[in-house]
From TrEMBL:
<keyword id="KW-0560">Oxidoreductase</keyword>
<keyword id="KW-0521">NADP</keyword>
<feature type="binding site">
    <location>
        <position position="258"/>
    </location>
    <ligand>
        <name>shikimate</name>
    </ligand>
</feature>
<comment type="pathway">
    <text>Metabolic intermediate biosynthesis; chorismate biosynthesis; chorismate from D-erythrose 4-phosphate and phosphoenolpyruvate: step 4/7.</text>
</comment>
<dbReference type="Pfam" id="PF18317">
    <property type="entry name" value="SDH_C"/>
</dbReference>
<dbReference type="GO" id="GO:0009423">
    <property type="term" value="P:chorismate biosynthetic process"/>
</dbReference>
<feature type="binding site">
    <location>
        <begin position="20"/>
        <end position="22"/>
    </location>
    <ligand>
        <name>shikimate</name>
    </ligand>
</feature>
<feature type="binding site">
    <location>
        <position position="67"/>
    </location>
    <ligand>
        <name>shikimate</name>
    </ligand>
</feature>
<comment type="function">
    <text>Involved in the biosynthesis of the chorismate, which leads to the biosynthesis of aromatic amino acids. Catalyzes the reversible NADPH linked reduction of 3-dehydroshikimate (DHSA) to yield shikimate (SA).</text>
</comment>
<dbReference type="GO" id="GO:0019632">
    <property type="term" value="P:shikimate metabolic process"/>
</dbReference>
<keyword id="KW-0028">Amino-acid biosynthesis</keyword>
<feature type="binding site">
    <location>
        <position position="107"/>
    </location>
    <ligand>
        <name>shikimate</name>
    </ligand>
</feature>
<dbReference type="GO" id="GO:0050661">
    <property type="term" value="F:NADP binding"/>
</dbReference>
<dbReference type="InterPro" id="IPR013708">
    <property type="entry name" value="Shikimate_DH-bd_N"/>
</dbReference>
<feature type="binding site">
    <location>
        <position position="92"/>
    </location>
    <ligand>
        <name>shikimate</name>
    </ligand>
</feature>
<dbReference type="InterPro" id="IPR022893">
    <property type="entry name" value="Shikimate_DH_fam"/>
</dbReference>
<keyword id="KW-0057">Aromatic amino acid biosynthesis</keyword>
Length: 286
């Protein structure tokens, strides 16, 4: 890839962001397409978001991805957002328009893609660990897949109440209930799918897990454990789930599919999904 004075800038903002593999897959796709773009990581602290976005506007950044902790904090800084982003209440993809920044959420499509290929989910129960921006995309995806019950657990009662209230006027109408973390022993035996949306176990906390072996022992033998974290691979949670004999999914395909949807928005053309996937697989195998 050759960077010149005409090269356009795309990127990802978050804290942390050094672990992100988004630059690997996006730059592989851009190179194959011969597009005069480069995709770079931008570490942005929570209190620096507004200044960073103003800087992007001033320096000609064309679009960017969003990860923890900015997926909801970005909303007041957008001129417009898609209906899906409004329903989820969180944004992971932003692009420049004449009116200002526009946002959407491609995490929903990314989340459901591997589940659609796994088994039918209508009438099932999902247990969602965490109640941040990623959890909102998961809830939206589970509503699309026809889950009969969506159980969300979190550690702070006030945040859980806000999370639940955020769905009151949603057109998705997910069958949602929220619970404290202490409710896990009651909820785990009913779960057909367990989804980790918390950052616990990602690169900066590798070796940690939101569920201990004794927790996973309560899950049904047919349950699937889906960790949205994609590095390290596998996470400690998925290692423990595999030892328990449970089927597992990691966040790699979700990352690929949501990234491909974002790149199509930025470039306004089809993108090489297989190239993006292979770039990540090769990188992780190094």
């Amino acid at each position: 890839m050759s960077i010149t004075g005409t090269t356009q800038i795309l990127g990802i903002i978050g804290d942390p962001v050094t672990h992100s593999l988004s630059p690997v897959m996006h730059n592989a796709a851009l190179a194959e397409l011969g597009a005069d773009y480069v995709y770079v990581p931008f570490p942005v602290l929570a209190d620096g978001l507004e200044a960073a976005i103003a800087g992007f506007a001033a320096t000609g950044v064309q679009g960017f991805s969003i990860t923890i902790p900015h997926k909801q904090a970005i909303l007041p800084l957008l001129a417009t957002m898609t209906d899906e982003a409004q329903a989820v209440g969180a944004v992971n993809t932003v692009w420049r328009t004449e009116q200002g920044w526009a946002g959407t959420n491609t995490d929903v499509a990314g989340f459901v893609a591997p589940l659609k290929a796994f088994r039918p989910w209508a009438g099932c129960t999902v247990l969602v660990l965490g109640n941040g921006g990623a959890a909102r995309a998961v809830v939206a995806g589970c509503a699309q897949l026809g889950f009969e019950s969506v159980q969300v657990v979190g550690r702070r009662a006030a945040a859980l109440d806000v999370f639940q209230q955020g769905w009151v006027n949603s057109p998705l109408h997910p069958p949602l209930t929220v619970h404290s973390w202490e409710s896990l022993p009651t909820l785990l035996p009913t779960a057909d799918l367990i989804v980790n949306t918390t950052p616990l176990g990602m690169h900066t906390t590798a070796g940690q897990t939101p569920l201990a072996p004794e927790d996973l022992a309560l899950a049904p033998s047919h349950a699937v454990v889906y960790d949205l974290i994609y590095t390290p691979r596998p996470t400690q949670l998925l290692t423990l789930a595999d030892q328990r004999g449970l089927a597992t999914l990691d966040g790699l395909e979700m990352l690929v599919q949501q990234g491909a949807a974002a790149l199509e928005i930025w470039l306004d053309c089809p993108v090489p999904v297989a190239t993006m996937r292979q770039a990540l697989v090769d990188w992780l195998a190094r």
